[in-house]
Design brief:
2 helices; single chain; mainly alpha
Amino acid sequence: MSLPKRYNPKTAEPTLQTQWQADGTYHFDPNSAAPVFSIDTPPPSVSGHLHLGHVYSYSQTDFIARFFRMNGRNLFYP
């Protein structure tokens, strides 16, 4: 996949989501024998203003989710 000079989410996101769906990137199997690791994220806050804390928070949970998924855990990350 080549990267365009300018990112257009309207064209990029559907393509990526289709690929992730085909690869089973975010698949959770409730009947799997693998140990389950669940990450529960809090609901969005009412402040409505995006700030660096959001980036920090979601980066940590994304890293943890990827780590456990790559190590064979059955990950539930809604």
